[in-house]
Amino acid sequence: MTQSNEQKRAPGRPRLNKEVARGQLLDSATKLFSTKGFEETSLREIAADANVNMALIKYHFGSKMDLWKAVILKLSGEVLEINDFDLEAVQDSADMRQLLGELFDKLVEMTFEHREFSLFVMNESIQKGERFDHLFELLIKPFHEQSYPFIVKGIETGVLADQDPEELIVMLLSSVSYQQAAPHILSPFSSVTKDETQWKEMIKHSLRANFIK
């Protein structure tokens, strides 16, 4: 009796739907690129972590750089949600103070939910190049564009100190991202990093106390 093709197939990794395999590759690439860095991560590692054949990386993405760019594109769609805060509804400084507090809280929640965002921002901002340019266009610039009107309004209403709004946006992004990217800097001085809920609340309080009047 002739064996079917399925029976003849050598044991190994299970066959996956192509889109499932693509998703697993993106998840593994996100984890490895963000924690180990682009240069230190091999395509073989990514394929092994995703439990798929390495040939599928070329099939779905082409090159290592194209896979990295696909990771950043996916991440931008996850973290850069259009916020539902309404500047037009702000009537006075009390309204603005509450809105900015909620905006800062949302930034903290996002960085805890997507630690890879902070890792990419900190790791790839060290020097300029193709990866930084791509990261800037898909993550940093959109974050700036979303935040800018709120920061300017906060300064105009006196809720934020009179300062350069561009500098403040970069300061907010870097201060929150740095804590998520390098918690080992804080952990020798405070045990708060062991309790995620407490840590989040501490950062939220610090942002309000240091930036909002």
What can you tell me about this protein's structure?
Residues 1-14 have low confidence and may be disordered. Helix 6 (93-113) crosses helix 7 (115-124), helix 6 (93-113) packs antiparallel against helix 8 and helix 6 (93-113) runs parallel beside helix 9 (165-181). 68% of the residues lie in helices and 0% in strands. The longest helix has 27 residues, at 130-156. The chain is mainly α and 213 residues long. It has two domains: 14-64, Homeodomain-like (Arc Repressor Mutant, subunit A, Orthogonal Bundle); 80-211, Tetracycline Repressor, domain 2 (Orthogonal Bundle), CATH 1.10.357. The protein has helices at residues 5-8, 18-36, 43-50, 55-60, 64-79, 93-113, 115-124, 130-156, 165-181, 196-211.
Quick recap:
By secondary structure, the chain is mostly helical. About 70% of the residues lie in helices and about 0% in strands. It contains 10 helices and no strands.
